[in-house]
Amino acid sequence: MPDKFRFFVTCARGTEGALRREIAAMRIAGAKGDFGGVWFEGPIEMGMRVCLRARVAVRVLMQLATFDAPDAAALYDGARAVAWRDWLTAKSTLSVHGSVRDTPALTHSGFAALKVKDAVVDVLRDAYGARPDVDTKSPDVGIVVHIAAGRAGVFLDLAGEALHRRGYRVAMVEAPLKETLAAAVLALGGARADLPFVDPMAGSGTLAIEHALAARGIAPGLRRRFGFERWPTLPPEARAAWQQMRAEAEEAAIAAQRTPLPPIVCADIAADAVAAARQNAAAASVDDVITFERADVAALEPRWPSATLVTNPPYGERLKPESLGALYHTMAQRFERLKGWRVVVLSGSPQWTRAMRRKPAVTHKLWNGALEVRLLAYDMR
Fold first, then answer.
1. CA gap 304, 100 in Å, rounded
2. Of 226, 79, 242, 64, residue with least CA distance to 138
3. Which of 42, 218, 353, 357 lies 20 to 30 Å (CA to CA) from residue 252?
4. Beta bridge partners of 346
5. Helices 109-128 and 72-80, interaxial angle, to 10°?
6. Beta strands 133-134 and 93-101: pairing type?
7. Closest CA to 333 of 293, 379, 300, 375
8. Residue 359: partners with Cβ closer than 8 Å, 6 or more residues away
9. What is the pLDDT along the chain (381 residues), one digit of tens a residue?
10. CB-count burial class (<10 Å; 0-12, 13-18, 19+) for 266
11. pTM for this entry
12. Distance, CA of 269 to CA of 203 (rounded, Å)
């Protein structure tokens, strides 16, 4: 087993810069941005650290091999040459996910995944006289194959479930914002931990919860388990390093509870949304630093000379255009009263820029799932 690996950490489109800065802050040198993620090299413990501490990352993929794969036979042969016994036994369960582009002889991602699965199973059957089982829902080892222009990369998925699944979302409302995108909005929008924070249209509370976790320095992966913890052949030294890493994060989270934070307000006009936000914050162990309010954005007032407001208002999928326009007009009027504040809006409708007649200090193009949105940050001077 090598001492050093190449990792690709994926993220939502448009958040690559935030992810690269986050990885650099973990003292991981040489991180390079790419479309949809960031590359870096290092020991397996670095990948574990990113799983535990990255707020913007979606998946952490560890590269095992790259090889030419212009057709199905070459893909099978290349995958069969990988040292699978380093990572699986005959008793392991596995899954393979694939993606293919610009390779005329391979056009179906499911077929590519099947060929790699066949190679893995054949290697282990030859070695142990028995084959591992496939489990597409909860495998011990997740394998990912990417094929582009006849070149294949084979990876192991360290995270297992996507990293936006922090483990604290126990109550839901309609159209929730993914935790990783919320963290990216806070980072790119410039939300400051030393100022009061308000989300006046909080839904299930994701923005306020992610802000509280970041302000306290609580590792976002502390409340969940990761795929690599189930790897049957994970080296003992790596497992010991992980246990220490997690214990240090637990200690830091306990110590953070003794540090007071500026006010964090999580408000919504809907009672069920406020209740859901409260439940989620309790599951994340940050309900003690968040104030929950049932309130209308139309009644928003500046409570402090300086603060950060971050919100993800409706985009219009469930509101008529005239209703959305009226809502945005009301929001813009109230936001203009917030002199000395920074206002950050994740906008999914061009009607917002017509309502908010002010040039943003920061603008980023992001994607909320398949929907293109704009992050717009205003300094209300």
1. 52
2. 226
3. 42
4. 375
5. 40
6. parallel
7. 300
8. none
9. 788 999 999 999 999 999 999 999 999 999 999 999 999 999 999 999 999 999 999 999 999 999 999 999 999 999 999 999 999 999 999 999 999 999 999 999 999 999 999 999 999 999 999 999 999 999 999 999 999 999 999 999 999 999 999 999 999 887 689 999 999 999 999 999 999 999 999 999 999 999 999 999 999 999 899 999 999 999 999 999 999 999 999 999 999 888 899 999 999 999 999 999 999 999 999 999 999 999 999 999 999 999 999 999 998 765 566 789 999 999 999 999 999 999 999 999 999 999 999 999 999 999 998 899 999 999 998
10. buried
11. 0.94
12. 9
Residues in the chain: 381
The span from the CA of 22 to the CA of 244, in Å, is 21
Q: Residue 141: which of 171, 110, 167, 120 has the closest Cα? A: 120
**Strand pairing report for 197-199 and 37-42:** unpaired
